[in-house]
Amino acid sequence: MFDIGFTELLVIAVVALVVIGPEKLPGAIRTGSVWVGRLKRSYQDIKREVELEIHNSEVLEKLQRAEAEIKNQINPGIEGFIEDSAKAARTPSDESSAEPSAKTPSAPGNEPEPRQNPSAPATKHPQNHGKRRATRAIAMSDDSSDQPQSLVAHLTELRDRLLKALLSVLVVFLGLFPFANEIYTFASRPLRAMLPEGSTMIATEVASPFLTPFKLTLVVAFFIAIPYVLFQVWSFIAPGMYKKEKRLAIPLLASSIVLFYAGAAFAYFVVFPIIFAFFTSIGPSDVAIMTDINRYLDFVLKLFFAFGLAFEIPIVAVLLIWAGITTSEALAQKRPYIIVFCFVFGMLLTPPDVISQSLLAIPMWLLFEVGLFFGRFIEQRSPDEPV
Predict the structure, then answer these.
(1) Per-residue pLDDT tens digits for 293-318
(2) What pTM was estimated for this model as a whole?
(3) Partner of 360 for a Cys bridge, out of 28, 95, 289, 346, CB 3.0 to 4.6 A?
């Protein structure tokens, strides 16, 4: 990955000259350098903000621990104050008046009315009043400690989601590992079908016959577990989304999974036969073709990843238009620059040859047109119409 060859750079220069034109090409180069500088500055700003947030989270944790310690020290004092207040409220006159008089029983209908003590407090149960006041004070102190979820809490939830995703990959891997050799045989079939008679694949390292199928099986397990992995990602970001956003995000999430699998299938069934037939046919006749199994695996994994990622372009275009970051008309006007970007992307994510670069760049351009079409369809809806 990220292997750059001279021929690929030459193809990009020719495409830029033809598509953009000699008049606009210097301005496009200057604009690209400006955007590179902006990306670097944005990276530095994000890094500083994350460091500041982590520092603030640590300070907030220390304050919360100090507050908890203070409350633990104050609560016993409050309870003692309540008990002292309750004892002081019980006077001897109140206790004697509470006892029934057995010496002078009164006749029915002639019970004396209870005497009102003007100096008595208005509250009949000072002990309960003191408890309510202390409980209210403790509750107010608890409410004041309620803080928004910190960065550490978000990172903790993200860690739990990642652990679940990794566990799903591990479970799938354990089920596929007994068939590791068969999986590698299936993956190497496009090359083996194009090899001359008598040529085979070889292993140049001692551990390659074991490690290469092992690595391929692990990657296949990840590909199969992608729906569950993306579900964990969705569960992490969904609480911060509105209902309308969720209605659009769920179809986009499902479409991104399907497009990723479609990109990998396109690479296996269309791209591999073409490039392997070309590579095996142009070599000298007296050179035996014996590809190392580990090098072959690295080659095909690069292409699987590149085509799976490239097929997400319609999703990216629809999201940019739906979020209001750009419009379909603006993307259509930038079509020449996007075509050049497709060839740059193909150069970075494919092996250093023009064929694989072009086989990736041209589908990327066509997929961009598909995303532009659906973006226009979204723009035609009224703002109040549900997506």
Answers:
(1) 999 999 899 889 888 888 888 888 88
(2) 0.61
(3) 346
